[in-house]
Amino acid sequence: MQAVLRYLLLFLAVVSVAVPAHSGKKDVDFSSDSRKAEVLYMEALVKRVEGDNASFYDLIERAYRLDPDNSIIAYYYGYALLMFDNQSVSKVDEGLRLMKSHFLAHPGDFYENYLYALVCNQTGKKDEAISVWEKLLSMDRGKVQIYPLLADGYASKGDFKKAIAAYDSLERSEGRSSAISVRKIGYMFAINDTASALAEGRSLLKEAPRNFSYNMLMGDVFLQLSNADSAMVYYDKAQKIDPENGYVSLSKANVYSMEGDSLNYEREINSAIVNKNIDVDVKIRILTNYIRKCIEENDSSARVDNMFKVVIGQHPHESDILKLYCDYLTFKRDYKNAAEQLSYALDINPTDVKSWERLMWLYIYIDEPRMAIEAGEKALSYNPDELSVYQIMATAYYQVEDYEKSLEVYKSLLEKNKEMHIVNESDIYSGMAEVYNKLGDTHTAFEYYEMAIELSPNNYLALNNYAYSLCISGGDLEKAERMSKLAVEADPENVSYLDTYAWICFLKREYKQALEYIERAMSENGDADPSAEMYEHYGDILFMNGDPEGALREWKKAVELNPDSEILKRKVKNKTYFYE
């Protein structure tokens, strides 16, 4: 709300420079304080136009303290109280009270009172806003900008008949238009006056039967009444009047969607999307809904890619369209091309930090961590304080096995985060623990895991990784099992967590339970390729459950992914398990 008020009141300040100061009293008091207040008031308005809000507030407050009876100064002091975020309720109420006092004393001051009504409307004081707008119109019926606001005010109170009457008054002043009729018809439907809605549309067509907008509106009225056949008649008429207008295709698509005619829906929606005459914002909204529908129906056909290529060709500099294409490609698991489209979007809008973060994760997912690092460096050149970028970069350096650099980035992130508190500190400690593990400093790694879990006992990634580290270092298996079990219970479909728990069971010689959890892990992994480590675990567990053939099968898969492992090669060669 405060941001909206500032936007409205900026206009007020600009306009008010041309408004002469007056005291609000019949006889102007030329005492010293009054004159000083007038000077401070004018200086304050200049500062406001310059964007110096702090000076504006200071000057107008001083003016008000010198002459609190000056109505216009009190008004702007009230306005100043509404400018800032996180203002107390009492200050907001005082600001509105001072602005209202000016309205009551000077109802003819149009701009001040017009903006006062807007402020009331934004702060939920609908009745007061309506009262002010009604008063302003009673003084000058020619202020046509008030009628739509007044109509919306009436509608917000559920008084749709008065809302319609307000638009009738506007029509008498400005003439008829489809835009006004759309609002009136909407209010008519709100009170179930379908006869008036139809009459409104027909009266427009009687005046101009070949008007494109009027035919479209009539079609929309019938569609609202679920009369698809009649709606299509008017849409067809509109299309004959303006064959190149893509909005007809969009309306027809709505009809076919209502009827469940997917074939014709696809034809019309595609025609609308590739139409050059549809506004890009509308096209983005259509694409967003269309992509959502494709994802829900698991549709990854080539025609969607072709449609995007046409639209991108029409609007090559619209980053939102490129990001939508990235969304669709991500759904198709075409992560490489998704990253490419997102990189094009960032060429257009390089300050979009969330897209940089997403691009970095895409690069990591397709095993291009160096490209993630490069993207992170670019992101930080535009947003040097975006701590989440540092976090992803630390992960990327870890993946390229530059552990010293990863640790350096984590330490820098930790220092910056102490001031800004943006990143979960527990996650930072957990990441640093992983790095220390790779550097062979198990003792320090365990210390950082402990700090991570102490800060956030529900950091399940830290619990899982700590548990696995204990396993492979010959640590406390009971402690490892407790932590791993918490992680699995919190996320029972997490492949890594299931694998860890299975391996703990294996080390505890609970082979049947180990088999249950490793098979759950393999099942949850779906179409993704397991790691060499996971294949090896599966093979070892199968062997200990009396399935040497199954074990050999999994060990061979592990060797393909990790051909340098001597222990794996021995297992395959000798077809037996070897203790490490």
Automatic annotation (TrEMBL):
PROSITE patterns linked to this entry: TPR, TPR_REGION
Extent of the signal sequence: 1-23
TPR repeats: 212-245, 387-420, 426-459, 532-565
Entries under Pfam families matching the protein: TPR_15, TPR_8
Keywords: Repeat, Signal, Thylakoid, TPR repeat
SMART domains found in the cross-reference section: TPR
PANTHER family xref list: CELLULOSE SYNTHASE OPERON PROTEIN C, TPR-REPEAT-CONTAINING PROTEIN
Name the record gives this protein: Tetratricopeptide repeat protein
